[in-house]
Amino acid sequence: MALPILIIAPGPAAPAVAESLRRALDTPVETVPTRRAGLAALRREEYSLILLEESLVAADPDATEEIYQKALAAPVLELNFAISSEQRVLRQVRAALTRRAHDQAQAQTAAALSLQNELKSSLTGLLLESQLALRNAQPEIAPKLRHLVELTANLCNRLNA
After folding, report:
1. Is residue 103, in this structure, part of any structural domain at all?
2. 22-26, long-range: CB within 8 Å, 24+ apart, which pairs?
3. For residues 113 and 35, what is the distance between their CA atoms, to the nearest angstrom?
4. Of residues 11, 15, 40, the one with CA closest to residue 30
5. Per-residue model confidence as pLDDT tens digits over 53-86
6. Distance CA 130, CA 76 (A)
7. Per the domain annotation, does 54 fall within a domain?
8. Which residue range(s) make up the domain with 66?
9. CATH number of the domain bearing residue 12
10. Beta strand 5-8 pairing with 49-53
11. What is the largest CA-CA distance in the chain?
């Protein structure tokens, strides 16, 4: 299930935008009227995106900074709900969610490649050491070392595939 979207905005426009987003994106949307309520929501749950009313930003930049810090991986969009149409908000939300998904996919790919490279390095070292040990092995332990070399080589081949 997708993470919900958080809207931090006072006034009557936020519920209408929230309903529009729920329908268009089929995702849960939570609306709170104040920065304090927004911070409380961020402490109890993770969100995919945070929409923040610009008037709240202008009124207290320090509190806004705290919202950005608590947002974690969720992008924060500052919007003026009084002048932004629901369609404009929807376009910006879709673009932000697409960017977030793209960034997460890139991070996962980079993490997987990093782990794969670390494993390859360790397995290559293990393979070389076990091959060296096999060359100088006593006859009674040579079969076990040969099996270890085969297992390690198999793992290396699977990682390279």
Report:
1. no
2. 24/90, 25/90, 25/93, 25/94, 25/97
3. 40
4. 15
5. 998 888 888 888 999 999 988 999 999 988 888 8
6. 53
7. yes
8. 5-84
9. 3.40.50
10. parallel
11. 84
